[in-house]
Amino acid sequence: DAGVTQSPTHLIKTRGQQVTLRCSPKSGHDTVSWYQQALGQGPQFIFQYYEEEERQRGNFPDRFSGHQFPNYSSELNVNALLLGDSALYLCASSPAILETQYFGPGTRLLVL
Amino acid sequence: QQQVKQSPQSLIVQKGGISIINCAYENTAFDYFPWYQQFPGKGPALLIAIRPDVSEKKEGRFTISFNKSAKQFSLHIMDSQPGDSATYFCALRNAGGTSYGKLTFGQGTILTVHP
Predict the structure, then answer these.
(1) What does the pLDDT profile of chain B (115 residues) look like in tens digits?
(2) Direct distance between the N- and C-terminal alpha carbons of chain A, in angstroms, rounded to an integer
């Protein structure tokens, strides 16, 4: 049984560009959450998707948006990239909103 | 606002020793307290978790102690091994309101276990 998978593993972009990150949840999981982890910090909650809708949102600007597909996979989109967006972006899935979250390996984004 | 404070920032322990990491939180709107272990280049992996109606939970060498009145909980790693060297994060799950189900993480503790 595959765990949470994310693609790509690494990505380099320049300021002002747009990026899309992808996540496939564990089998049987229908809830996907996205986190940003800056170097040396704990993960920060971006938003959570359930039933193809954004259910919760953390303190992130509208440049961060997402989508969940009928097969429960999800995308994170970031527009107008800033240097400060450089981080490890983590996807976590759970079988329901209040169940344990399992994390993927993350996508390392570098903005130059 | 910072809802959880984790300490220490780093910890060095000899093989076979006990590693203790602490977290303190600021309000009571949490219903689940997991600990995650993260190795370099990897995502966090769930290690052990506790609910607030239990004061202690043990799984193998890992124990969570929970003090609801003091709003503190800690991770104890018994017989620490070099393979335990990693970054450890405590987390809190929001029980309701607009942040229902959200995980809030501590700042992390870098554990080094010397052979």
Answers:
(1) 568 999 999 999 999 999 999 999 987 788 889 999 999 989 999 999 998 889 999 999 999 999 989 999 999 999 999 999 999 999 998 877 666 778 899 999 999 999 9
(2) 37
Residue where the block lists tokens 């997991």: B34
* DSSP annotation string for A16-47: T--EEEEEEPPTT--EEEEEEE-TTS--EEEE
Indicate the DSSP class of residue A9: S
Residue B60, beta-bridge partner list: none
Task: Please say whether the dihedral angle defined by the alpha carbons of residues A89, B4, B22 and B27, taken in this order, is positive or negative.
Answer: negative
Q: Which residues from A are below 8 Å from B when comparing CB atoms?
A: 4, 31, 33, 35, 40-45, 48, 55-56, 58, 90, 92, 97-98, 100-106
Residue A56 sits in a domain whose CATH number is 2.60.40.10
Query: In chain A, how many domains are there?
Result: 1
Question: For residue B35, what is the domain's CATH number?
Answer: 2.60.40.10
Number of domains in chain B: 1
What confidence tens digit (pLDDT) does each residue in A17-32 have?
A: 999 999 999 999 999 9
Residue of A100, A107, A108 to mutate, testing the B interface (most B Cβ within 10 Å of its Cβ) = A100
